[in-house]
Specification:
The chain is built from 4 helices and 7 strands. It has a 7-stranded mixed β-sheet. By secondary structure, the protein is α+β, with helices and mostly antiparallel strands. The mean pLDDT is 97. It has helices at 11-24, 36-43, 94-108, 124-132; strands at 2-5, 50-55, 61-69, 78-85, 113-120, 136-147, 151-161.
Length: 162
């Protein structure tokens, strides 16, 4: 697996699974009717942030991540990131590789910690992955996320020092 900076040319490979994941409404607090232009603007963050893709040996995009300062100004020393793995390629370590890459990027860029502001508590694969990589749940907003099948569920804030 290769993780490299994403380009505009990667977007046609990202959009189908990005759209599928967002429209399902189970893991991201994005508008369910997000169109392609809005999605691209949201995901392919500009410098000094970074968007990446994970590809296999044939160049197939397996997943993607973006990373950036969580806040500006006096909060700009804390990083954040988001990850999406194509459902066709789940269970192959893509999410773990993307998260590890974002942690290395944040460390090299001088960030002091990484925080995820909105991890849906029912997204157990993500919660377990992040915990296995040293993140802890700082707190949970009760009923902070409206899950399409489970109703109102908690939204975790997760943190890891770098």
């Amino acid at each position: 697996m290769l993780i490299r900076n994403a380009t505009a040319d990667d977007w046609p490979a990202i959009w189908p699974f990005f759209h599928q994941i967002v429209a399902a409404g189970e893991t991201f607090p994005y508008p369910l009717d997000l169109d392609e232009e809005q999605g691209r603007a949201m995901w392919l963050v500009p410098d000094p942030g970074r968007a990446v893709v994970a590809t296999d040996g044939t160049g197939t995009v397996l997943g993607t991540a973006n990373m950036y300062a969580n806040r500006s100004g006096n909060g700009s020393h804390i990083a954040s990131a988001s990850y999406m793995v194509d459902p066709l390629h789940q269970g192959r370590g893509v999410g773990r590789a993307l998260c590890a890459d974002s942690l290395a990027w944040a460390r090299a860029a001088g960030f002091r910690a990484m925080v995820f502001n909105a991890v849906v508590e029912t997204n157990l694969h993500a919660v377990r992955l992040y915990e296995s990589l040293g993140f802890t749940v700082l707190g949970t907003v009760p009923d902070g996320f409206r899950h399409p099948e489970k109703g109102y569920v908690g939204l975790h804030m997760m943190h890891r020092p770098l």
